[in-house]
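This part of the workshop introduces the protein records we will be handling. Getting from the letters to the tokens is the skill we practise here. The record below serves as our worked example for the rest of this section.

…
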Amino acid sequence: MDIKRIDARLSVSPQIAPADLEAIAQAGYRSVICNRPDGEGADQPSFAEIEEAARAAGVEPAYQPITAGMVSDADAEAFSDLLMRLPGPVLAYCRTGTRSATLWSLSEAGTRPVTEILAATKAAGKDMSGVARRIANGGHTPTDIADATFAVVIVGAGAAGIAVAASLKARQSDLEIAIIDPADVHYYQPGWTLVGGGVFRPEQTAKTMGSLIPRGVHWIKGAVAAFEPAQNAIILDGCRVVKYKRLIVCPGLKLDWGQIEGLEQTLGRNGVTSNYRYDLAPYTWQLVREMTGGRAIFTQPAMPIKCAGAPQKAMYLSGDAWGRRGVLKDINIEFMNAGGVLFGVKDYVPALMEYVRKYDATLNFFHNLVAIDGPAKTATFEVKQPETETRRVTVEFDMIHVCPPQCAPDFIRVSPLADAAGWVDVDQATLRHKSYDNIWSLGDVMNAPNAKTAAAARKQAPTVADNVIADIKGRGPVSQYNGYGSCPLTVERGKIVLAEFGYGGTLQPSFPKALIDGTKPTRAAWFLKETLLPPIYWKAMLRGREWLAHPEPLSPK
């Protein structure tokens, strides 16, 4: 038997045999539903045989035969009635279990979010993307074809989405483009480190979304529920359907605060903060200003995360502020990193270690934050050092800066666009989807092995724009992305180690070494970060002006 749990009440499985019913009863199942018509397969037991064995084992049997590929709206309602009537937990089966999972998905539509239904069935090995539109439509077959159709649809209006829209418009001004995003405000997230360091005000990092959508681009203010790439369709919450000729996917990452027990209940108080949220970055600076002694912890979860250097940037700027106030000697700084190295590109580590020593910070590798008790001011870490048994340690703190675990959004992870790990599956050079030729992805959700930074999106947007326009003209890809990413590591107020690198950790400096040596802390890099990069972001990158971001021609294979 291959039983897969859907939720607490229902599990599904492929065809069972009468001899299996005793074990099914011992596993705790009180009812069984047969969704396979008799006579569908030569070696298939009849429902009568299953029914007899079920009653002998003390299990309630039910027969709801469904022809493969023909689950009607009425079938889903009848399945829901069975689940309500039968004692649970219930095991439903058919030839593979897919019909049973489909019936459950449609019966739950309207009572659970679409992404929750898709995630539950995917976890059980059942892909429900083919009926996602029906799920979004309350479990009923939609009668509409599409509410709107565009030449290019972009999912996500963050740095990547607006930049690629602007780059496309710069190349073909009459192109019909729509951006889908529910947010009212667009944030310059790289600025939050400087908000937490007392350099920027939070309002400097935010603008209204409407003011940034490129001229002539349609803004669909909604959330994506599911993708139907075989039909070139996107389903929005509320069951609106948007169709496209070409699709670009770049919605950004999900910050999974809930993975850390107790964290959501204490964020923004009890000394618990994070520069990964607009409203919390000012609290970081408040804690730094007020702290005169005790233990300050800075955490980093397992990769991937947005801007891999951000957790330690907060540590360096805090240490610098305490040093300037003369209280550093009374503060114990600890960096808790789930990984095994300070920074993934070794060329920058020597400069960073100088500041670790300057601030007398303790580095604790393989320490992953799993729980926080805010009122008690304790943090619990799971320690997974190589070739040692996993253990847990609990540490007291006076201040803790948390970097949350991160993953692709639910509607990406459960979609047909995702690879096995939940990321949009693209060719790392052209950023074109590996299975769907009219889909591209950039930014944080695609699976190319690059750093997830705004600087990476700045380079990716022109590449995708070039390749989409080439495709419209009937040509193959013309440009490639070389993995460029940048992480300006703010090691002290006024100095930055400007890490710039591509695939495989290859250094890719944008400036002559005489101007900015990225492996050393420089004031020139700080000037770039504080003064030049914000206007470059707002007035160049988001407007299709590709300063230092011109696409690289695709290398012949």
